[in-house]
Amino acid sequence: MVKLYGVARSRATRVIWLMNEIGMGYEHIPVIQAYRLPDGGASDVALNTLSPEFLAVSPQGAIPVLVDGDLVLAESLAINLYVAKKYGSALGPKDAAEDALMVQWALYGAASVEPGAIAIYYVHAEDRAKTRDGEVELSVASEKLRRPFKVLNDHLTANGWLVGRRFTVADINMAEIVRYGAVEGKLMKDFPALAAWLEKLHERDGFKAMWAKRLAEPA
Question: Percentage of the chain with pLDDT > 70?
Answer without folding.
Answer: 97
